[in-house]
Amino acid sequence: MSKGGGAGKVYFVLYLAVVLELLIIIVERDEAEEGLLRKQKETMKIVESILSQLQSGAGTEGINTRPQDEITIPPPGIDLKQVMGADIKSFRRYIVEVGVTDVTNELKKKEGEADKDYQLRKKKLVKLANVQEIEYQVFFSSSQDPNNAPMFFTEDEIKKQKLEFTKFTPGQSITASDGSSWTFESIRILNLDEEETFTRMPKENLTMESIIPIYPVNLRKIIGPSFNPSGMPDDSVFFYSTSESSKGTSELKKRSFIVNFQPPNKAGWYKLRFASRTNRILGVKSDANVAEISDETTVNIGTVQLTVRDLKKVKKELNNKLEKYGLPSYEDLVKTSNLDAFEKGLKDSKRKVERMEEATDLIGKINLYGYICKLLAPGQSANFEQNRGSIEFNVRVITPTPTQANPVITIAEGFSCFDAIEPVIDFTISPFQGTNALEGKVIDKNTNATVARVNFKPRDEIAGTAPPPRGGSREYLGYVDSKLSPGKYDVEVTHRLAGKSDVKTIPLDVFKTGLSNEQMLRSQVTFAATYGNYVTMNAEPNSGGKIKPNQFRTYINTDVGDQQKGPVNGYTVQQADAPFCSSNSNNLTLRITWVQPNTGKEVDLFPQETFPIVQKPPKLNIGDKSVSISGQERKISIRITRLTAVGTPVGDSPGSQEKADVDVSLGKIDVGGVQGFDLIEGSGVVEKGEGGTYSVYFDITGKLPRGQDKLSGQIQVPLSASAKNKLNGKISKPDRKMITIPVNTFEPEKPGRTPGRRPPR
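Request: output the structure for the sequence above.
Response:
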């Protein structure tokens, strides 16, 4: 994807793939048949004809942005509107578009395709549909030519001189062929995370738009300054844009990247250069061992796949026909990876045939041989020019003649604070002249009354540094002179200079110090503080979402010295930051604070509180119980089986399966609901089985009321289960359950007959 060439070149590559498939089919057939040999020759000519039209580069459709721009940077004290006649921003937002392979028609699973093969093919489609790597380079020239930037290196010169800008250091000078001097300023590189991109793809209804490329921070490379606009985070300087990529109706599939650029106050020319690497042509992987490459390994030309076996057959056919012209060795290319020597060998071979009558056909065959060798040689497909592209454009930076500007206040859209501390605001004034005057007051929105004053102090004085130069800007902190009750206020700041003034009014929200879910949080932590558990939590400050989470700190630790951690930024504690309740801990402490920006003062929203760490009770499960009743009136036996109670973690180490010992005990059995019967003293017993199962046995005795054949009423059996930590001896609170046994359907056995049957008359 370099500059120059026609926009249709990439389609020649796709044509090449289709015709190669036709050629391969023909080569595989019986070559003894005259008709097939004739078709083979005809197809070879078609391939060579297409190759002869392929020139260097991928076409200007590969990578696009604006060709030239101009930015006005005001020197200190300048009124830019007065000088230029309009408000002009001193930074720019550029969109860089890189063409990629359209894989739309390849995303669905093919009929009869194995799931494993489909997953492998989707991984390859991720590479085809995205930009593998893109570089953003910045160079500077102090030339004051108002119309033309100095000459820079051409793409051929960069390649021949092997200029690797990734190895440059900021401030390093380079000189173009005409003597023009440029200084390397910075470079940023985004690299595609193929695995993460594949992982985040939807499992169904795949589209080009749903394959969202991931360029993670850990794969980025940054050298030199960011040139980011004031107040813009560093990660917004150069990044992939999903929204921009989905815009437009062109048939060309593209990926869009956004650059935010603000040059420093230095007149001259800046060159912004972008170089990309895509995967329109995918050959054998760079880390492959030639001896171990399977003939079934596939390569891609666009979305068309060819096997290594097929390409080897075509290469062999070409080698037999062309070896007398001194073709460069494929084996040497694999062994040395010296592409320059291989390309030189191809040129030498073409030079030998250029005066022959069939020169056009022979040159086409030699080109085809070179393409196939680069597809088969590990890692060499990255050097196809269809996979690479670059574009550059120039930005002229000018500084107009200074004039006296009006006083200006630059301030945030609003501030928030808690009522336990005096509010503090920050802002910037310009131009600084040493005679600037500031006033400030706080107005209650409900009553419109002034309730406090604002005192100002420059940041440079607070830091003990020199004030800024005249004409520049100066940063201030504004201190409200008293605490404010919860409510809504306006802060009015006035900046006066040379008889002119600027007034800014911004909202101030003051919240009651504390959490909106304090009681719920306390219950949450109490429940979670058990051995073997990580104590996670989520607090909710009274400010809601008005104050950024990174202004809060959560201190949460156990009393074990070597497990102490620093505060967590925010008011949510996930497992990665949560303390582990080990068996040698006794208590857990929790404190949540808000750190006031600019002053660093810390305000307690949840003052430090101590929570005991306890053994979690086992869960006594009676839902699957089975009850059996048998016997005669003098002794009726009740059996309750299939009760379970499993021990809880003891906290020996994270992830351990070690459980506490469980004790299941029987309370006082209540038989009072069964008329005429009592519990046989000493008969109640709990028996432990395997795998945390338990059974209860007890007997009752009595006599049925006259005229009654069956028992009536119910029996109440209280059970409790507790867990004992085998490492520290602590015992949990019991888990208590009551088992109710209805006995209305039971008819006691009669001596000498089967229950439920009357004796004969």
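The chain is about 20% helix and 30% strand.
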